[in-house]
Request: fold
Amino acid sequence: MDYSIHDAIEAGFNKIIFIIRKDIEKAFREVIGERIEAICKQLNVEIDYAFQAIDDLPKGVKLPKDRTKPWGTGQAVLACKGLIKEPFAVINADDYYGKESFFKLHDFLEEYTPEKPTDFCAAGFILKNTLSENGGVTRGVCQVNENGYLTGIDETKNIVKVGNKAAVQKEDGQEPIDENSHVSMNMWGLTPEFVGLLEEGFVEFFENIKGDEAKELKGEYLLPIYIDELLKKGKVSVRLLETQDKWFGVTYKEDKPVVVESFAKLIADGVYQKDLFADLKA
Reply:
């Protein structure tokens, strides 16, 4: 998260919203929030908090009795309603995306005008740069037209690394997949008007799962799935911004040493300073 915040500020973003659960607010502020707030104050970067709650539901929707977790990334962004008044980027806090994608998203979002409320973008990573050595991963495999716009996102589970190639692991064997495919890693560039669409979609989500006990207990309102629905209906456009950066994160506990080594190498290579934010304060 620290590296993403650094890269976003370096790229020109000047506001950060942490989306957390209310019950972890105190611990989050003590461990992360207060430290980042102090850094951002020096850099004239605004900090805010949004709280995702399991019972924050559309009017008339009742919380299923045995539901235990919030409703996914779509609801998380919706928790920012009232805080978002400008074009914005969405990322996962536990992923490392690299510098290039933040600069590309920021440049795209700077072109926003209210006359283009449904012009979005997404960072498009190369599949082979996002795989784990330790098991299968789920990736949003992108379908892209000749003009560089998304036409669909196929959430594909259990993609494994096979030498220098990639495959989808199935019960009856492996199905090859192009390792140079573009994939979405839940890094989006969106407009303030998107929040209204997201609100409408949340109502539709509950209409669609009504009476399906399994989905009422475990279903999630996910950004890539909803954006894919909007694409299929022709309601939005999403420009794919290719990035050659290597994504990494801890999908499996065995990934941790590799991630630690990767950050150490980035520092040794001069991509980051050991005092991470020192270059921004200079």
